[in-house]
Fold:
Amino acid sequence: MDKIVNFSGLLRKNGIPVSIRSTHTSQQVQELIDENDPYFKEALASVYIKENKDRDAFNRLYDEFFQGLTESDGSETDNEESSETSPKSVWSTKSNKKWKISYQEDDSDFKAREIESNEINYHPPLEDYSKTPNEAELLSRDINTLNSFEPELFLLCQKMGKKIAMVRSRRQRQARVMRPDIRRTIRKNLQYGGALIDLVKSKPKVKKNHHFFLNDVSGSCDWISNWFFCLVYAAQNSFRRVRVFDYDNKSVETTVAMDEPTMMDAFIKVRDIRQKNLMIHGTSNMYQAFESFLEKVQLNHRTTLMILSDCRDWGGPKNDGIPRSAELIENMALKCRKVMIFNPEDEKKWDVVDSCVSDYRNAGAEIHEVKNLNQLAMIVRDI
Structure:
């Protein structure tokens, strides 16, 4: 039993999240399957491994731990050598007692003390396992640094998108609940002298909102637009009439990628569309891009327009220092129910050099700072 507890602690120290339930289940596996059985390792892997990325680390730690203990049973010499090369906390097998060997602050000497049984069975609090460190780190990391394809990040976007869809669907179901219509109830019950006998419920309003997503794929927002697309793809079922566009100095519709069966297929489809339209690390001309977009769509009071952009119109024309793209933003804001701009730049950099944040805000757009994936997901959820 103690061996499984120690192995759980080793996994935990190396970044693999291990819960109390996983440790208890592994102890039951140890009772049922002999350690020398080849199925023992796979049985433990099925209990401990929650994400595919942890498989290699688990295999390495399993081999070091269980094979190391088997070899250490052979001679005391091996024990002495392993104690010198092992990490700062190891278990001695020279006697039946368990000893913890730890280095002092100067790392030159070590001391040993007997470990009580209640220390061996210690487990960290449950809140330590509520969220894996890797997920927490990715969610809070500066979104501008997420500039490469990381499988963990790809899967996290899929997971976050499904959570967004679940929250939005729950909110929509609650909105469809028929509530009492007081005015009609009173009118109908006038025939009974005002006594409320018949209750009239209001009919749920059918919302026919349209959601348009514009992704800035210029050099400054290239990878950020990828993760934004992944979130929208995973949550698309909770939106009505979704259309997606990419833009740099022109706009191209990528809605067809939303019909792909998997997120990976959709991701590849979008990248292929961008390459065919020469939209890789381009320079933004938001005036031309918005003009091209307005030629392709019909905006009305039911339209919610969401734009991912750093609000830097590098190549667009200007009138008296004000970018003409702000005129198009004002035109869209007058037609649409809402125009929202998600800006991945730090707010301290807004309105610096060619930043058009104030111009777009004055034109009627809502500007939201999205410094990390968590902020971006929360804003998309609350649309």
